[in-house]
Design goal:
The chain is built from one helix and no strands. The protein is an all-alpha fold and about 80 residues long.
């Protein structure tokens, strides 16, 4: 088991130190708040990724539209010159 580059022995040591510092009554509350914070970061990351993908799709559609219009505009310009 490897979470954030921390193995099982390191995780156990961190838990023991946290238990000694905060005590058994405060530890579940801290765990809940940490879980909520991590969930918030995950949701923000997911939202950012979705916005980024939407923008990428819009840019791709704009490029396709421009690529389709340019040949038609060039043909119209050449016909006007002739």
């Amino acid at each position: 088991m490897n979470v954030f580059g921390i193995g099982l022995p390191e995780m156990a040591l961190i838990m023991v130190v946290a238990l000694l510092i905060f005590g058994p009554k405060k530890l579940p509350e801290i765990g809940r708040s940490m879980g909520k914070a991590i969930r918030g970061f995950q949701e923000a990351s997911r939202e950012f990724q979705n916005e980024f993908q939407k923008e990428a799709v819009q840019i791709e559609e704009a490029v396709k539209t421009t690529a389709e219009l340019e040949p038609k505009q060039l043909e119209a310009t050449h016909k006007e010159e002739a």
